Amino acid sequence: MPVSVRRILTAALRSPKFPSPPLLSLSSPQTKLNTIFPFPQPLNSRPCSSSPPPPEPDPPIPIRTRTRTPIEKQFETWVQTLKPGFSPAQVRDALEVQSDPDLALDIFRWTAQQRGYKHTHDTYLTMIKILIDGRRYRHTETLVEEVIAGACEMSVPLYNSVIRFCCGRKLLFNRAFDVYKKMLKSPDCKPNLETYTLLFNSLLKRFNKLNVCYVYLRAVRSLTKQMKASGVIPDTFVLNMIIKAYAKCREVDEAVRVFREMGLCGCEPNAYSYGYVAKGMCEKGRVGPGFGLYKEMRGKGLVPSGSTFMILICSLALERRFDDGVEVLRDMLDCKMSPDLLTYKTLLEGLCRDGKGDEALRLLEEFRGRDGLMGGKTYRILLNELHFISREEDE
């Protein structure tokens, strides 16, 4: 554009006929264009006096914080109490005072993750006892596997605690003997009397059927030899379990041998010792020696169990030793024990078949008066059986 034309336009704009344009906002180029050259707005963008005002914005939603549970608060309290550099003894004390096993386990796991700290056999033993008392058996199995895998140094109490837990769980029965074998190989943690007590007791619980007894009797024999080789002196309880195992399997001679050797271990036979041997002899058909053990036991003032009384009475009746059977039954009633229906029938029906029906009826009335637990139904059954047998004998 020539210079002269530019000057003319400048002068015209500065004249009163052409007012200066208003100051524009520099927010957007479209705003400048609309201000200088106004264009008609579309109908939908023109403000309408009848349109409702824009809605007010919703108030901000407050952020809700989750309320901590009492266990979380207690956990944070104990975490703050256990200052850095805590010892296993402090962790054990913190675990022992916890009433909630889950909180104790959280503390146990948290301390294990701290730098420079490692659990010992004391902390593992304490935690295992807490979980067992709280019936947290799955968590206990996890800790047991950690211990067996070598998570800490072992001790005899920890070994026994693991064996006790495994013996109490049906599916971990074999695992208990795996731990025992590991204990035998340990240079510092050899099995003691508690270890063998737990294992013998676990084996005897499976002596419920005769064919199963022979399977576990081998384990009893092996365990007995290992106990002697280790120099562990058994007590009366362990020897009674060994006697019971032999008697259950009809190995009466072995049972008598252990019974006679109890004195060498400094143990005195008790009522269970006599009872196991006497029952084993009667079941084997050696009623005479069994009755002799009974009299020896009663001479020492020992009282047999109810099962020992009843087995002895039935065995004597089957051997036609009715006088001795009546003597034992009267002794049983004197000890405030009641025979069952089978014991009464074996003795009284044996008397009837032996031609002593009147004596059997007289004894029935005597036993009814002395046995407070004999009900009317038992009495009627016995009375009818005796009358029936007596009629058969008369015919």
UniProtKB/TrEMBL annotation:
Each PPR repeat, start to end: 235-269, 270-304, 305-339, 340-370
UniProt-recorded Gene Ontology molecular function terms: mRNA binding
Chain intervals for the UniProt region annotation (Disordered): 35-62
Swiss-Prot/TrEMBL keywords: Repeat
Protein name, as recorded: Pentacotripeptide-repeat region of PRORP domain-containing protein
Signal peptide: none
Biased segments, Pro residues type: 50-62
PANTHER family xref list: OS06G0184866 PROTEIN, RESPIRATORY COMPLEX I CHAPERONE (CIA84), PUTATIVE (AFU_ORTHOLOGUE AFUA_2G06020)-RELATED
Organism: Morus notabilis
Keyword Repeat: yes
Family: Belongs to the PPR family. P subfamily.
